[in-house]
Prior knowledge:
The protein starts with 7 loop residues before the first helix and ends with a helix. Helix content is about 55%, strand content about 15%. By secondary structure, the protein is α/β, with parallel strands linked by helices. The chain folds into 3 domains: about 5-90, Orthogonal Bundle (Helix Hairpins), CATH 1.10.287.70; about 110-235, Rossmann fold (3-Layer(aba) Sandwich); about 260-339, Regulator of K+ conductance, C-terminal domain (Alpha-Beta Plaits, 2-Layer Sandwich). It is elongated, with a radius of gyration of 31 Å. The mean pLDDT is about 85. The chain has helices spanning about 10-35, 40-50, 60-90, 95-110, 120-135, 150-155, 165-170, 185-200, 215-220, 230-245, 245-255, 280-285, 285-290, 325-339; strands spanning about 115-120, 140, 160, 180, 205-210, 225-230, 265-270, 295-300, 305, 320-325.
Amino acid sequence: MAIKDISPSGRIILVLVLLLSVTLFGTLGFYLIEGWPLFDSFYMTLTTISTIGYGEIHPLSTSGRIFNSIVIILGVGVAAYTFMTATRFIIEGELQNMLGQRRLDRKIMKLDGHYIICGNGRIGSLVWKEFHKSGKPFVVVDSDPQALEILEKEHIPFVLGDATQEETLQRAGISRAKGLIATAVSDVSNVYITLISKELNPKIFVLARAETEDSIRNLKRAGADRVVSPYLIGGQYMANIILKPTIMDLLDLAAGERNKDISIQMEGFKIRPGSLLIGTQLKDSRIRKDIGLVVVTIKNPDGNMIFNPPADYVFQTGDILVCIGEDDALEAMKKLSNG
């Protein structure tokens, strides 16, 4: 591997190792050849490789002068490389980039229950923008530095690396993540990402992108909890806009799509401990009369979906209420369900 291919942190380590090696080499050499004390040997080495030129602190023998010539050649070379490395860091801003990446790494280390979005292409960028608007914690992983430039400008956590590698996913906090979204262009890459993520965190929810029906089956075999084909969904969506326009308008509401002709939205609310709704029947909750919402569906903690729930349904902790209403009403419902 060429020196230019070494990472910024790697070049810093290399410089320190070279300086330490030459200093140790010179100190031991003067100590063994001339019999000087260790401090005098170290001081002579330091003045030699720094090219200060204070002169010999003790008279040198012929062997000592030959050795000193070697130290001068090595020291000048190391000093020149150190100077070039420092200049490159200053001119190209590599030090700033490295420190910025370390800040990002520390930020990612603090995340818990977050989502990992693998790939910042057309699909991945749409996903993280929606997550960003909703306030969900997430990290974006991509191997293309140019694809991550916009994230750096927006101060959004990201990891530069190959998502099919364990080290990259570990840097993204895979062990603490709640979910992973594999949006790589290659279906093979998404299969690898799914396999590795499930191995590193068996409980993680994996949503994967697929191009073909065969890939959908392969991704499910690899452990993906849900698989989405953008082309298949896109085709069905376009057809249903013509065939089932009213239903598609309702689905747009559920997805949070804004329509200037429609002032209502659809959203789900989880009843959390401490909510006044717990133990209350739907008819007594006055959700429709006082707040102005319509409860369309209730998903109970067992996973059962109750469409058009009956008036005597009793709310319990963990119920998820899917409601339709205006923004103010949805905000009021959010406070009520949170307790």
